[in-house]
Amino acid sequence: MDTNNWFEVEDPEEYGEEPWDFTEAELAFVDALRTRAAAWRVPPAHSSVSRPEDDSSLLVHVALLDDARPLVLGEWAVHFHGTHVRAGKVSDQLFHLHMAPERGYFEASGTVEELAERCADWFERLLSRPVVRLEWPSENGMHGTRWEFADTGEGLVSSFPRGAEGSPPVRRVPVRP
Prior knowledge:
Shape: elongated
Number of helices: 2
Order of helices and strands: EHEEEEEHEEEE
Largest sheet: 6 strands, mixed
Structural class: alpha+beta
Distance between the termini: 12 Å
Radius of gyration: 18 Å
């Protein structure tokens, strides 16, 4: 199912910045993630490899999108520090993480291979989760919309007020199977 090139390295020179000098451990981590991702049976998603603005780590991230409404529904990232990682849902444009376990946050230490395996499993579980778009009509013709993980009802993004609280959505549109 994978037609996406998982974890492509972004080119900072496109933005007039110096190229990144990745360490041997960072390159091994990315290579191990790509190897695991090649066997995934998940819908494609945007993914990339870069560094955060403060250059403190190797940054690997995925973004879930609603292609019908070019909208980012959420981003999740791993900050690789050589012998440990921090991973979770992204909280801002600087790729800081929500540090709550219910948002997927975790920290781990180990070898490059162990960390890559743990992170690949985490990304695969995330990318395997179904996403739906719920729609409610409104009096002015605009729709209230909410995107959520279909398996748990965990909200991702809401758009426009949805009207009467507790009313069932008029439509449930699968965004990711």
